[in-house]
Amino acid sequence: MTTTRFAPSPTGYLHVGGLRTALFSWLTSRHNKGEFLLRIEDTDMARNSKEAKDAILKAFDWVGMGCDGEVVYQSKRFDLYEKYIEQLLVEDKAYKCYMSKDELEILREDQMAKKERTRYDGRYRDFIGTPPEGVDPVIRIKAPRQGTISFVDGVKGEINIAATEVDDFVIARADGAPTYNFVVAIDDALMGCTEVIRGDDHLYNTPKQIVVYKALGFDLPNFYHVAMIHNEQGKKLSKRDGATDVMEYKTMGYLPEALLNFLVRLGWSHGDQEIFSLEEMIALFDPNDINKSSSNYNLDKLLWLNAHYIKNKPDSELVELLKEFGVDLEGNDKASLLLSATKERGKTLVELAEQIKLITDAPTQYDEKSAKKAFKGEAKEILSAFADMLALAKPTSKEAFHSVMEKIVEDKEIGFGKIGMPLRVSLMGSMTGSGLDEIMAILGVSETIKRIEKAIATIKANFVM
C-alpha cells in the first residue's frame, strides 16, 4: 500500500511551499488509494509553539486535506528513539563521543586552514580507554567509510554520494535528545512510509537517513525531492512574494480549491490543462511527473484561478463564505441578483464583498473627480426627470429599468452617457460598479429614487453656479 506523509515543525506557520509539498504527498496517496499521514516534528522544545501547531492543523482543515489516522507527535516518542539508540550502541553501530566543543572548534579551524571540508574526524569511533571527566558524550552513528551511498530519486534521477562525504554524525545530543535525521528515518520507517516527498533542501539529509535505515535494517522508501518555488524574478520566494501563512490566503479572500489548483501547477503539469478539480488532480497526479526545475510563483495566475472558482461556485456557498467578510445575504431575496451582478468583478471574496457593499450601502460621499465629471451641465434636470419616470413606471426587473433608461434617452434626445454617468455616481458614489439596470433592480425603485434625490441635493449645493 502506498503511504505518504507530511512532517512540519511547529516553529512557524504553514507556508505555501509546505502546503505544496503536503499536496503532492496527499495526491500520491489518494491516487493509489493509500494513506496520507501527518507527523508533527516537535522535538525542538525551545522553538515549538502551540499556536503554530494549531495553525498547521487549522490550515489542513481549511483546504480539506484530511490525514488518515491520528496525528503523530515526535515529542511523545522519545522512549522509542532511546530504544533504538541503545540498540545501535549494543550492536556497535554507534558510539559515545567525548569530544568537547572546544576540541571540535579547534578541529574545524585546522581543517579550514588547510582548505579541507569541515567534518568530525572519528577520533572516538573505536575508543576503549577511560572517558574524560566532565564531558557529557553525544552519540554518533558509525557511517560507512568506503563505497557509495546511492538512491534513485523520483524527481532528480540516480544520486550517488561517496561514503566519505558523510561523517559519523550525531544521533543523540549530550542531553539525550535525538537529532533530526535520526528520528525522521525511524518515524518514516515505522509509520510505513513508502514514498517520501519533500523539498530539495532536504536532498543532502537523505544520505544520512539512509545510513540510519541500513543500520537499523529498515527498508528504504522511494524519495522525491521537489525543486523550490521561486518568485517571478527567479529568486527565493519571500513573504513579500506570497510565501505567507496559508491561513492568510483565507483572510485575503482566496478559495481553498483555487489555492490547491494553483499549487499543483507549481512543479507539475498535465498537458496544457490549467484548471483541475480535486478529483482530476487525484486521478492524474503522479510524483514521477514532478518537474526537475524550480517553478515561479505568479500572483496573477492565482487571482485568475480564484476568479474562476468564485464565478462557478453555487450562490448558496458564496452566501455562507461572504459572512466572514462582512456581508450577510442569508434570507435576502435579492442575493442571487447581487451575486450575478458582482461575481465577474470580484477576483477574491474580499473584492466580491466590496462590490456587493458598493451596491447595498448607499454612498456617504461622492468621489470628487467622478462627481465633477458627472454632475455638470444638465445632470440635475436629467436625474430629476429620470426619478419621475421611475416613480411612474414602477419597474421591478432589470429589463424594465433598462427600458426607463432608454425612454429618457429618447425623450431628452441625449446620449446614453448623459444619464449613465450621473446615475452611476448617484447610486455608487463613483464611476465604478456593475450594470446600472442590474443595480437598480437590486435596489428597487424607492431606494434608487432616494439616492438620486440625495445626488440632486448635492448638485444644488455644490455644482450649481
Describe the structure.
Strand 1, helix 1 (16-31) and strand 2 (35-40) form a beta-alpha-beta unit. The protein is built from 18 helices and 12 strands. The chain is 47% helix and 11% strand. It is mainly alpha-helical. It is elongated. The strands form 5 sheets. The chain has a 3-stranded parallel sheet, with helices on one face. The protein has a 3-stranded antiparallel sheet with strand order 4-5-8. Helix 1 (16-31) crosses helix 9. It has helices at residues 16-31, 50-63, 78-90, 101-113, 180-190, 206-216, 246-251, 256-264, 278-284, 299-312, 315-322, 335-342, 349-360, 368-374, 379-393, 398-412, 416-428, 436-462; strands spanning 3-6, 35-40, 72-73, 94-97, 138-141, 148-153, 157-162, 170-172, 195-199, 222-226, 229-230, 295-296. The mean pLDDT is 92. The protein has 4 domains: 3-67 and 228-301, HUPs (Rossmann fold, 3-Layer(aba) Sandwich), CATH 3.40.50.620; 77-226, HUPs (Rossmann fold), CATH 3.40.50.620; 313-359, no CATH class; 362-462, Orthogonal Bundle (Arc Repressor Mutant, subunit A), CATH 1.10.10.
